[in-house]
Amino acid sequence: MLESIRKRRNSIVILVAFAAIIIVFIFWGAGPSSNDNANKTAVAVVDGQEIPVREYAALYKKEVEYYKNTFKDQFTDEVARKLDLKKRALDILVNRALALSEAKSKGVKISPEEVQEAIRSIKAFSTNGAFDKELYFKLLSSNRISPAEFEKSVEQDLATAKVRELVVKDVKVTDEDIKAAYRKDNRKIDLDYISFDGEAFKGNIKVTDDEAKEYLKKTGSAFMAPVKMKVAYAYADYASLVSKVKVTEAEVKEYYDKNQKEFETPERVKARHILIRPDEKAADKEKARADARKKLEEILKKVKGGAKFAELAKANSEDPGSARQGGDLDWFQKGVMIKPFEDAAFSLKKGEVSSIIETEFGYHIIMVEDKKEPGARPLKEVAAPIKKALSIEKSRTIARDSILAIQAGLKDAKTIEDARKAASAQKDLKFVVTESFSENDRRVEILHNEMLRDVIFGLRANEVTAPVDTNEGVYIIKAVEKIDAHVPEYSEVSAKVKARLVAERAEDEARKKADEVLKKLKAGEDFAAVAKAEKLPVGSTGLFSKAQGMIPRIGAFSGDKEQIFDLTAAAPVYAEVLNHNKKYFVLKLKNSKEADEANFEPMKELLRARITAEKQEEAVGAWLKDLKAKAKIKVYEDML
User: How confident is the model at residue 235, as a pLDDT?
Assistant: First the structure.
């Protein structure tokens, strides 16, 4: 199971695209360093290029989250250890550093236009199929990433993509490769199996207290009690403060006068459009494009003949975001739409209809309903939002001042009552004392904010934070009590330790028994006779193929066990004991059915694409392995 998931995950992270995941968490750029790591800033240095601790920590966290979501409750310290996620995260970053270095040495250049086009194509920044500049800045800002940082990351992604193209350009896939893969994927096999379950061996296993105590010493991390905290905190809620603050007309006017640039309005157009997309599933792409253009030409004739644009858009447009509104795109300014569309829209006069415009989405015609020249919005039009912004600004100032006013009192507080008294001196603050909790205790409200959770579990006992700003308000937190993670006393977990040791030994007995039976079958003994003599349960999978991905009735992933599909009547016994879900299986070919050649042609191109991707991945892996062998790589193990 672990190996199959690891293999599938590997296919997307040999050269990870940072720009695609940077929205989720922060990365900090790498740069040259003295390489002595005196300030503990790096986890590794690759040919003089530092890999920062923060970048590694963020990626490691993302990897852990991925596997937690995959395994759910089955994700344990043991699973994490087997996956070796720390090394995995480091390998990804080393691969990226090597690829970027190789791109530089080969003179790979990325133009600003390429970066801009790549950013515009990221769906996270699109509204109704068009790039939304305001959304772009909002998403970056909410994740505390500057546009320059993000654009640099995109530039690096494009550089690694270009150098990767150089690596895989000579990868070839022949028709013979495709046919062989088809036959292997679609050959069906039926397996007999003998299963061995540790549950059947538990009754014969006894564990003494001395054995369990020794086991606890060796595997203490499996029974680790988590860090527990008890905190007292005060917070000022922005929403409740906004309604209390007063903003005068004079303050609004003063802000307007001092920030004129903020209220300048660029040239804008109000437009409608009709989009016709070529059929993406069509085998003949050129014909599909020609058909789409012809359809739009007919619609354009109707527009020129006096038909209502909005009605034609409702009936024909293939833009799901605007068709129902008669193609209405409302007002937009330059820098929002993709360039060919934008250029056409802003070249039209009020009431004009464009010729046919081709973009990456398909073919468009545009009608400009109105235009507005650059100017400045009058005070009366912006007074309300200015007043709201000033109210928020004042509420934030009041909130922070209130928190700062009690900081010293919280630090000096010896008891919870002392802390409560200090907080009560500021009328706008709310004060809360929690029960003892661990990091994943969702009953504790303050833990719902990930940033506050990280701050809390970074505190020492009795330590008080500086003011912590969040989107909802300002917090100050005092650690009333902290119990570090620890291995409990044996008396507290004796039952759990014994149960785990019994299960482990029982599973080991099941594995040994499976090994014994497999050895007999390899020596030529009869499958049914061995099962009967050993009083072991026998099952049959029924016919299945590699393409199905799973072994029926057993439930194991078959994609990383290709040798199963090579079994023949002459060599019917699978050479390994199959381990799945804490059970063991010995497998023998019962029957097989060769692939139906009649279905090959419809699958041919899909198979070609898959095999090409697999071979390209192998080529990139070999290339990176070679780069690593030549590179100077220093890893600071103490930082992992």
Answer: 95
Backbone angles phi, psi at 167, to 5 degrees: -70, -40
- Cβ neighbors of 434 (< 8 A, separation 6 or more) are 229, 230, 231, 232, 233, 444, 446
Running DSSP on this structure, what letter comes out for residue 313?
Answer: H
Question: For residues 84, 88, 90 and 91, what is the CA-based torsion angle, rounded to 10 degrees?
Answer: 130
Task: Write out the H or E segment, with its range, that includes residue 286.
Answer: helix 285-304
Among the listed residues 10, 472, 52, 477, the one whose alpha carbon sits nearest the alpha carbon of residue 234: 477
| Strand residues in 254-411 grouped as ranges (E) | 264-265, 268-276, 328-333, 357-359, 362-372, 375-376
Nearest C-alpha neighbor of 451 from the set 14, 109, 26 = 26
| Distance in angstroms (rounded) separating the CA atoms of residues 135 and 117 | 16
Q: Looking at per-residue confidence, does 359 or 72 come out higher?
A: 359
Alpha helices, H only, 413-489: 416-424, 450-456
Name 206's Cβ contacts closer than 8 Å, sequence gap at least 6: none
H or E stretch covering 433 = strand 430-433
In the chain, the domains with their CATH numbers are 2-173+618-639 (1.10.4030.10), 188-223+490-593 (no CATH), 228-248+382-483 (3.10.50), 267-373 (3.10.50.40)
Q: Mind giving me the DSSP string for 499-543?
A: HHHHHHHHHHHHHHHHHHHHHHHHTT--HHHHHHHHT--EEE--S
**From start to end of 200-321, where are the E strands?**
228-237, 264-265, 268-276
CA distance 592 to 32: 59
Residues pairing with 128 in the sheet: none
Q: Which residue has the tokens 């078959």?
A: 558
**Look-up of token digits 């056409």:** 344
The CA distance from 165 to 546, in Å, is 30
Residue 604 CB-density burial (10 A; 0-12 exposed, 13-18 middle, 19+ buried): middle
**pLDDT class of 56 with cuts at 50, 70, 90:** confident
Q: Which of 10-19, 43-52, 276-285, 364-373 has the highest mean pLDDT?
A: 364-373
* Consecutive H or E run containing 49: strand 49-52
Q: How far apart are CA 577 and CA 514, in angstroms?
A: 7
Candidates 228, 224, 232; CA nearest to 440 is 228
- pTM for the whole thing? 0.56
What is the structure's pLDDT at 25?
36
Across 93-102, 185-194, 297-306, 477-486, least confident range: 93-102
Q: Given the DSSP bridges, would you call strands 538-540 and 328-333 parallel, antiparallel or unpaired?
A: unpaired
Lookup: tokens for 391: 């109210």
- Return d(Cα 161, Cα 153) in angstroms, integer: 12
Query: What distance lies between CA 432 and its chain's CA centroid?
Result: 34
Which among 95, 73, 74, 28 is positioned nearest to 621, based on CA atoms? 95
Q: What is the pLDDT of residue 148?
A: 80
In whole numbers, what is the pLDDT of the chain averaged over residues? 87
CA angle 493, 495, 497 (to 5 degrees): 65
Burial 189-199 (b: 16+ CB within 10 A, else e): bebbbbbbbbe
606 pLDDT more than 50: yes
The residue among 333, 254, 327, 19 whose CA lies nearest residue 145 is 19
Q: Look up residue 416 and give its two tokens.
A: 């919870």
Burial class (CB in 10 A: 0-12, 13-18, 19+), 96: buried
C-alpha–C-alpha distance, residues 30 and 45, integer Å: 10
